Amino acid sequence: MDAQQLRDAYIKFFEEKGHAHISSASLIPDNDPTVLFTTAGMHPLVPYLLGEKHPMGKRLVNYQRCIRTGDIDSVGDATHLTFFEMLGNWSIGDYFKKESIDYSFEFLTKILGFKKEQLAVTVFVGGEGISKDDYSAQQWKSHGLADEQIFYYGRKDNWWGPAGQTGPCGPDTEIFYDNGQPRCSENCGPSCHCGKYTEIWNNVFMEFFKGADKKYTPLKQKNVDTGMGLERVCCILQKVPSVYESSIFKPIISKIETICGKEYKEPYLRDIRIIADHVRAATFILADGVVPSKIGQGYILRRLIRRASRNMHNLGCRKLFMKEIAAVVIDEFGVSYPELIDNKENIFKNLVAEEEKFQKTLIKGLKKFDDMLVENGDSKVFRGDLVFKLFDTFGFPVELTAELAAEKGLFVDMCDFNNRFEMHQDKSRDSNSQIFKGGLIDQSEKTTKLHTATHLLNAALRNLIDKNIRQKGSNITAERLRFDFNFNRKLTTEELQKISDYVNSAIAKDIPVVCKEMPKDEAIAMGAIGVFDNKYEDIVKVYIIGDISMEFCGGPHVGHTGEIEGFKIIKEESSAAGIRRIKAIVGKYNIN
Ligand code: SER
């Protein structure tokens, strides 16, 4: 079974069980200030897991594009990836443990053909006031799993979430594939890394909310959130040792082999895997509208492109290659992710520009690095001031210096580098770290106000400045909103004042903010705007603010605009070519 057949089989199976197919959300979380990328299928569903009504109902299924950057430095071995796909099914306050386990068992054994003896499961052993999950264990037994196939673990292994510091979470039951090899020791079990067990599916019973006070309170409703790793399951079904040998990566790796003239085998495995993973991830990130930059998602994108470029350089390739590989990615994944096709030209343009820029830096930096090795002398520690100089004067990424140093058996004095970096880069560091503060979704009053203010700002820009302005990005922290939009010049002080007056006058009028669910076509016909790309959803939510604004949105919003109290623009700047950025704050004393 290849990836496409697996996606189709999964969706069909759960549709037959009454689940609505929702499309994959963007990799860039909408209005979530605390994470850079969508890391799991549940991520865009948080408001619904917390109790909002989903327009498609209580049973949902999809395949979701995800990025996890925590292991970026481990990519190159046989198992780590930055970009991956997650198959997921959800019960939003509908079924719970029984059906969730029954469906998983049926899908794995009847549709994918696993024998029940090939499965092992883990369940929550209990603790901190939450009881042992005997119910799930019993349910697995009812399907014929023996006691030896059921393992009990604690919070470290059998509890999922919240993704940030606060948010929905709960105990889970994880499903593993057992490859049949003998246990490596008496203690061998699913948490062992000997290779006998591979995790394939995680069923989370999301019934708690972890608050800022670190306390767990029961959610309004009991939810199920499951996630199955598409790449891993493909590997097992195709009986290949790693994802890079599976049909998912075959076309990409063949292309890399052709371009560099090296075969996918030692000593080239690591370089080829990094290129394959990173170009695939970069292509998807670009498709979601991110451009390479110094901070946030743009910085991760830049790092992926640069690492891929450097590894191709290791393989002896000196030409620009990324566009050719991206074309293979678009061909292969465009059927499931049409945004790749829609944004093809933009993807190519940005990739080539960044690659060209980096090649120049690379060639210059490699030479400087050699000079600095001499300057560093015999020490096993590569001096922080040299690392900083390479970074600051020659634009050479510190990760790359660290990798090059490691190849020469040297450690980089990161402590010294960090001190220097912090002194010089206060500004960008602050905005980066901001992203990781707080919980997964801060549904506080303040962010709700900022969310509605964002709609008013969008309306002001379109009504006062240019009808063709569209949202190109939105990010809300506890302190401010940030809104990116297409416009190709700086806004004047007078224009900014007019925008601000417009929003403040809408606030003063205390207009009701009304949420309506309606057929998608009807909403479009009425002129509703917004980032709406879900081709499967027939019924959508539209937030209407008088005759000022009508936007597709998941919410939450204030009930009346008066609750925002005041609106003040604190910055207008360029975000990327043709994209401007406005930052604004709200509150009683914030009016300009
Ligand atoms: N949220 C869970 C996970 O990421 C299940 O999807 O594993």
Classify the helix fraction into a percent range.
Answer: 40-55%
| Rg value | 25 Å
Residue share in β-strands: 15-25%
Bound molecules: serine
Which stretches are low in confidence, meaning pLDDT under 50 for 5 or more residues running?
Answer: 427-442
How would you sum up the major sheet?
A: 9 strands, mixed
- Given helix and strand content, the structural type is alpha+beta
Average pLDDT for all residues: 89
State the end-to-end distance: 60 Å
Indicate the overall shape. Answer: globular
Salient structural properties:
single chain, alpha+beta, 9-stranded mixed β-sheet, 4-stranded antiparallel β-sheet, 19 helices, 18 strands, globular, binds serine
